[in-house]
Amino acid sequence: MTAIRAVVTDIEGTTTPLAFVHEVLFPYARAWLADFVSANADDEEVAAALADARALGGIAEADDAAAVQLLLAWMDEDRKAGPLKLLQGLIWRQGYDEGVLKGEVYADAADTLRLWHSRGLRLFVYSSGSEAAQRLIFGHSDQGDLGQFFEGYFDTRIGAKVESASYAAIARAAGLLPQEMLFLSDHEGEIEAAREAGMQTVTIDRALPEDAWMAGPLAGSFSAVEKAISPGKPA
After folding, report:
1. Which of 55, 147, 172, 189 could in theory staple to 139 by disulfide, Cβ–Cβ 3.0 to 4.6 A?
2. What is the distance between the alpha carbons of residues 155 and 75, in angstroms, rounded to a whole number?
3. What residues of the chain score a pLDDT lower than 50?
């Protein structure tokens, strides 16, 4: 087995509880969207995002109130639209800066990421959330500033998470062979795509007992990842 030189991790369900994203972050952005747009409509970045949203929604001449309604509808659809993700990220950044939001990260993930970083492993994030949102979760986490341990962040601008080409592109961006990288996720479609690209993989299934012995690349927590890789471990 090729020695692992880097780890790429998913966020939702892997380093961070799904509930944090769906029950904290998304409702927070929804609740503050109208007020944020009203207070920042003249900001160049916000104005550009609103214009992009109107163009995508086919309402180019609509006012800001109509744009907000469109964005709220996209939230209900869980649509991965660029302007929406940008505005959500800006709202979340304000919440983090004000101390209202704190990124939730599993303690075992934080401890293991610190350990791997201390060993010289290169660490990356790949999530469907925007790069800005990724940096906020780890940079303002309840486990301290974990952002300092990551070398790079990838979102869906590099490609869909269930397409092997995305993982090949990540390896190229890191200057590594895919087989030198370990990908961690709770999503089997993502795991399969990374494996097809040549990456080593471990599925994180937090329903597993902490001390469960796994014969394959499956782990109940970050603490069990090294045991799940056979043979060898990321070191």
Report:
1. 147
2. 18
3. 213-216, 231-235
Instruction: State both tokens at 15.
Output: 């380093």
CA dist 124 → 9, 10, 84, 181 (Å): 6, 9, 24, 10
Work out the end-to-end distance of the chain between its first and last CA atoms, rounded to an integer number of angstroms. 13
How far is Cα 38 from Cα 196, in angstroms, rounded to an integer? 46
Domains in the chain (CATH in brackets) are: 6-16+103-228 (3.40.50.1000), 20-97 (1.10.720)
Nearest Cα neighbor of 1 from 175, 146, 148, 217 is 217
- The string over 10-40, giving b where at least 16 C-beta atoms fall within 10 Å of a residue's C-beta and e elsewhere, is bbbbbbbbeebbeebbeebbeebbeebbeeb
Residues 231 and 217: beta-carbon distance below 8 Å: no
What's residue 211's pLDDT? 52
How many residues in the chain? Answer: 235
